[in-house]
Each structure stands twice: as C-alpha cells, then as structure tokens.
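Exam revision sheet. Question 4 asks you to relate a sequence to its structure. Input first:
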Amino acid sequence: MFEEVDVVVIDDDENRCHDTRVILDFLGENTVSYSSSEWTKLVREFDDGNATQSVKVLIFGNNGSEPLESRLNEAQQWDRSCPIVLVGDKDISDSDIEAVEDIDLRHKVISCLEFPPSYNTFMDTLHRAQLYREQYAINSGRAQQRDVQLFRSLVGASRELKKVREMMAQVADKDITVLITGESGTGKEVVARTLHYNSNRRDMPFVPVNCGAIPRELLESELFGHEKGAFTGAVTTRAGRFEMAQGGTLFLDEIGDMPLDMQVKILRVLQERTFERVGGNKTIKTDVRILTATHRNLENMIADNSFREDLYYRLNVFPIEMPALRDRVEDIPLLLNELITRMENEKRGSIRFNSAAIMSLCQHEWAGNVRELANLVERMAIIHPYGVVGVQELPKKFRHVDESEADLVMPESSKDGVSSGSAIDEAAMLPLNGIDLKEYLTTLERSLIEQALEDSMWVVARAADKLQIRRTTLVEKMRKYDLQRK
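Answer key, structure tokens:
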C-alpha cells in the first residue's frame, strides 16, 4: 500500500492538505494524505515494523483539536523510525512541544512550519528528515546506502560528475579519510563540505585549512595551537584547528604543499588520535574526521621524496577525483544557469548568454575550471548588466568562433513579432565552414530538456510548461534521448 510513498500528510484542513501535496509533488515527492480519522483507523490496522520503511516523514496539520502527544503516540505506534513535521497556519509554540512528557516523542518532531513554508525551508526539512531516518537506521543496525540525489550542490549531468556523486553517496556517512584530487577550481572544497553536511558529524564544526596559504613556521601552531610563551608573540594560550574541529570535520586543502616535517606530525595524529600544543606537554585526544585535497600528483611527489609514502596511504583510504571542466563541457549550460540563478537570488545582477556564446565557451580549455567560469559570469554581469552576451561581448580569449561569423547572426522573433527573450538563446550563428545542423539541433534540444527537468526537480509537467510543449511530447523526447531521473 505504501511501497512507492515518500511522504504521508495527515490533515483535516482540506485546503491546506491539498496545497501541501501540491508543494510536495512539485518537489518530486510521492505523497499520500489522510484525514485524522482515516489515519487513526490505519494505525490500528498496522503494528510497528509493518509500516513501510521508505516513508521519509509524516506531516501533521496542526488543528488544535487533538492533543499533540496523542498524535505523536500514533506515529510512534505506526513507525518508530519516522520523523514528524508539524504544519500550521500559525507558528507552533515551543511550549506545545515541551508539554509532551515523553522525551523520545519530542525528539521525533524535527520541524514546526508556518503554512505556507518557503521552498528552501521545505527542502531543508525534507533533507533533515532523510538524515533522521538514516541515523535511526545506523543506531538500529539497518543502515542503507544514501540517495545520490542528496548531492545536488554539484551541478551537472555528465557521466563523470554522476560517478563522483555515486562515490560521495558511498562514503558520506563512513567515518573514514577521503582524499579529493583534481585541478584547481574543480570544486574540491564543495565535495568536502557536502561530505561533511551529509555525515553524522553535520551538526559539529567544519574547519578548512589551506596548507599552502599558511607560512611553514606558523603551520604547526595553526593546526595544533600553542601555549602561552611558547614563542615570541605567544601572549596567550590558543587552540588550534584540530581542537576547533573537535567532533566535526577538518579539511586539509592543498595537502601536497605541506612541509615534510609537518607531514610526520599529521601522520602521528592519524595513527594515535592525539597531539600536543606547541610549547605544551599535555596530550590532547582528538575526535575529528579528516578530509584532504590536492591539485598535485602525490605519487610523483613520493618519487621525488617531497611527500611521505606512509602518509599518502593513510590519506588515500577513499580517493575521489574531480573531473576538469573541459572533460565535461556538456555541463556548461547547467553551470551557467546555476551561477546566474545564484547571482540573481543574491541580488548581484543578472546576465544571459546566447547559444553562439555558449558554443564558444564549450570550446574553451578552462584552465581555471568552474572557478574561472564563475568569474566570467560575474564579470559579464558587471560589464553588460541584464544584457544578452554574444561571442563579440566575450573577452577575447573566450572567443573560439571566428569573429566574422557575427555578421551572420539573425535574431529570432516570436509569432507576434516580439523577441522571445529566451534565457538561453536569442540568436543563432552559422559557422564560416558550415555545421551539421541535425547534430547541433539534437544536442541543443537534449541540453535544454535536461536543464528544464533539472530546474523542475524532474517534475515532467513543470518541465513541459517551461519548454511550452505538451507533457506527452516531453515524455516522448525523454524516451528518445534516454533521459530519466536517477
């Protein structure tokens, strides 16, 4: 009965119940709803453990007609591992929760939302519900692999990035060391932060340290702290990054730039989980998960005796390699959309790129990878605020289409003679040496469909509205291009 359900909504307010379901459907969650009487009857028919283990969360409408503790007891009877969200037209008071005598029942309520909740609030609540279920599974010995879709902050649909997401899903809740490799600007710190946010340590600190940015004579003090008077200028006792990250995650970026003498001390911490502050003799125990990253080839550094082999094998328990942007150019349209959307949400301006400019960007080498692309978007938004960027507006080094082809640009208009104002394409360009039109249109259509689906959280009806085509047409095109939500 519940095998394909993600969320169960229980609410006697029909309008609010309907609106809640609409929001959840838009977010791609499979949802069922019940009135209070229907829910009570259902609970009586099921014993704990017979309810589905796929339901992420129970959402109760707060009607004020039934004691909260009674409602929570029903949820506990139905499924002990399922978290609860309370939704009401007014904020639910903390005193209402505190009035519940059973502490375990109180802890099941992970969020109290005023209706209608914002998109970000609802997304965050659903994510917290997923973490609650997984933590319960770990504590009860029923842990399962995380859903790859948790890692939506890494934008792209390329095979290379999907592989990275899958590897992250396997290791996020494992308390082991991860070595993230890849060129500068590929998003190694994004991977580290995402691993921390989706780990059991997410409520504790995430402390990043760039080992290449700190002078070698200060690195030991920065990592381990120092006692008062340990050296000139040490006027007070100071905790280091290991102590600051206690219980959480320490991210050692550019570990390949760490001096050899410090590598020995890091190795000792990894082996013994203890350290001493500079100038101190008190042994301090540490409980941190260490994530490391580097753009260097550590194996070559081992051969050159500039990196310790024993430390390398301690760090390289689970390697994740971030692909260069030039190896996943099909993600550039999605990345542009994400960067522009983020910029607009932060009210820092806006910009659009036509298809010719995007084609030119896809031919760039991107030595700075995603960071270079982000810098370009911000620069274009300053130079051409709220404008449409073509090849001629791009900085010279990004122009990989012959300048003479700009004369062939012809703006498209909608049927009523007004420019369509598309966010992706307001002009078409014909290369000087011609083009395989069929292949170009196929690639462009597939890319636009993928973007619409990603933007709509893979809700087909929503994506069809964005593309201004019928839902059945979009379904056929998804079959044609083998597009499906993973």
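Marking note for examiners. The chain has three domains: 7-139, 159-323, 326-435.
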